[in-house]
């Protein structure tokens, strides 16, 4: 299992510069109100691609967060990191970093490489899950409750839902296209006429890709045929002499081939191995020179100085140039003309308002709607099948959170005649707070503390099957106390058997279950005139004092410390029983 072993936060909120050593299992973060506990969650969220808020940056002008991850070799994160150019550190860990300026500029680094923030956010989907008080508000919305139910229904249900979304989008697109064509028949027909005229002009010339460049080359060659022939002949004679006898060899200098042959024979006659090898190199050079000379002879033979051919090439080039000016983007040439024609043919299909085209489009729309109806029914059935099991699991968690009388259920109202992007159902999570009470939407039927426990129960139900290795809970125990608080600690400790769990809490009953206990302290920095924050790990008596402070507000109270020791003993016993 992967985990975050180290977190460094600089210049964020009340935190100047602190480094947290995070152990496996359950880590709790406690401290006085306003000390900066939530900055730990803010730092984690920022590190893993969350939105950068320049208002959190201290007066220093730049905030930074760094984290060190240890991951198993088979983790898919490694492949994605490698794709981004990231390298593991010397100890095999993966280092992430994020900086934010006071102006809002943000940068991310992964394994020593600068990467887009989106890359880190993509990795976070498989690494980190943050559960906070905002999630309580989010999960009180019917749309989020529907998503929660879909997620609980499992991967096969989600695959059907994805197919439904695709089918729904296709149906809506076809229906909108049909309405558009019917409502704008005259305008579309006129636009189609313009496209057809352009295609007729292009088809009449029938340009080929790159033909304009080829015609430019041919025109230059035909215009300069005499000069090109003279240059090629001069070069050929320099290489092999006047092999035809047509140019008169008297008085001409020695050609390159003859000179190379004389040198090659002189060296080959030597007994010295070095000279013999050089003679072979010269023999190869003679072959190359002869080949070039042959190509020059073919070039001269192919040169055409026919004025009629030149006129033909110029006319063809003018016709293509006219098309390029009219239909191609700047610099695209004949290839751009062909691209316009291809796009025009595609657009003609979309502008077709003939009876045949409209009938075919209507048939496609109806087929798509039939698929939407079929998949919508399957999605609805999957939700209904999962609803009872989901509600039962949440109910079992609530029973352990001192809400034994509460009953949760799902209301699913289906309207096959009005399919939406997410299906045909309106989903709502209902709760009856006590026997005889009518089920009501959970955000209306629960008090603040009860709502916290309901949402935490939902989070715990999901978290047990969540594949991410690191889970963060930000004061989801707000409004909870007494026995329920201890049960929250017990459940978080249970999650920590399979995940690295980081919890920001104000409850001693929760903190007592921690494997690692971090305390956030704030002290006035009189020199700078601002509040500084430090984070330290506490153990043994220091931990007892912190729990006593959380219980009574008095760290040195004998009664508070006795209660703290009792909490630690109860938590240890509960963990042993669970193991």
TrEMBL record:
May be involved in recombinational repair of damaged DNA. GO terms for cellular component: bacterial nucleoid. GO terms for biological process: DNA recombination; DNA repair; SOS response. Keywords: ATP-binding, Coiled coil, DNA damage, DNA repair, Nucleotide-binding. Residues 4-521 form the RecF/RecN/SMC N-terminal domain. Residues 341-378 form a coiled coil. This is DNA repair protein RecN.
């Amino acid at each position: 299992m992967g985990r975050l072993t180290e977190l460094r936060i600089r210049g964020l909120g009340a935190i100047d510069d602190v480094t947290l050593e995070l152990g496996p299992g359950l880590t709790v973060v406690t401290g006085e109100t306003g000390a900066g506990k939530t900055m730990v969650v803010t730092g984690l969220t920022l590190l893993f691609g969350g939105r950068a808020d320049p208002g959190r940056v201290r007066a220093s002008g730049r905030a930074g967060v760094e984290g060190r991850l240890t991951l198993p070799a088979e983790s898919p994160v490694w492949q994605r990191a490698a794709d981004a150019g990231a390298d593991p550190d010397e100890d095999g860990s993966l280092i992430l970093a994020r900086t934010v300026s006071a102006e809002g500029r943000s940068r991310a680094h992964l394994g020593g490489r600068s990467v887009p923030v989106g890359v880190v956010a993509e990795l976070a989907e498989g690494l980190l899950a943050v559960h906070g008080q905002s999630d309580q508000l989010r999960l009180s919305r019917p749309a989020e409750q529907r998503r929660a139910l879909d997620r609980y229904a499992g991967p096969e249900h989600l695959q059907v839902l994805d197919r439904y979304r695709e089918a729904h989008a296709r149906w809506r697109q076809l229906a909108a296209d049909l309405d558009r064509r019917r409502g704008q028949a005259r305008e579309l027909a006129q636009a189609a006429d313009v496209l057809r005229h352009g295609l007729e002009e292009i088809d009449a010339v029938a340009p080929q890709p790159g033909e304009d460049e080829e015609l430019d080359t041919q025109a230059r060659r035909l215009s300069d045929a005499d000069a090109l022939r003279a240059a090629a002949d001069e070069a050929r004679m320099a290489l092999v002499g006047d092999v035809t006898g047509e140019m008169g060899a008297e008085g001409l200098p020695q050609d390159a081939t003859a000179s190379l042959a004389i040198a090659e024979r002189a060296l080959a006659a030597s007994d010295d191995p070095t000279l013999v090898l050089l003679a072979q190199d010269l023999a190869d050079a003679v072959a190359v020179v002869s080949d070039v000379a042959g190509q020059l002879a073919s070039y001269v033979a192919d040169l055409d100085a026919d004025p009629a051919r030149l006129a033909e090439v110029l006319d063809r080039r003018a016709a293509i140039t006219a098309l390029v000016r009219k239909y191609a983007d700047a610099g695209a040439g004949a290839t751009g003309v062909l691209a316009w024609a291809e796009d025009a043919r595609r657009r003609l299909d979309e502008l077709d308002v003939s009876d045949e085209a409209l009938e075919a489009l209507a048939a496609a729309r109806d087929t798509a709607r039939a698929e939407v109806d079929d998949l919508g029914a399957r999605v609805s059935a999957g939700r209904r099948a999962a609803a009872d099991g989901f509600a039962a699991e949440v109910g079992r968690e609530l029973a352990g959170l001192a809400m034994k009388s509460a009953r949760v259920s799902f209301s699913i109202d289906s309207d096959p005649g009005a399919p939406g992007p997410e299906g045909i159902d309106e989903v709502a999570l209902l709760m009856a707070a006590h026997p005889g009470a009518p089920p009501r939407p959970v955000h209306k039927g629960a008090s603040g503390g009860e709502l916290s426990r309901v949402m935490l129960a939902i989070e715990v139900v999901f978290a047990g099957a969540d594949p991410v290795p690191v889970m963060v809970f930000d004061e989801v125990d707000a409004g909870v106390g007494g026995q329920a608080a201890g049960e929250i600690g017990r459940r978080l400790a249970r999650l920590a058997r399979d995940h690295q769990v980081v919890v920001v809490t104000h409850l001693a009953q929760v903190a007592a279950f921690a494997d690692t206990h971090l305390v956030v302290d704030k002290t006035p920095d009189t020199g700078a005139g601002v509040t500084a924050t430090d984070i330290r790990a506490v153990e043994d008596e220091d931990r007892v004092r912190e729990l006593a402070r959380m219980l009574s507000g008095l760290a040195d109270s004998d009664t508070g410390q006795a209660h703290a020791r009792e909490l630690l003993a109860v938590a240890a016993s509960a963990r042993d029983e669970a193991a």
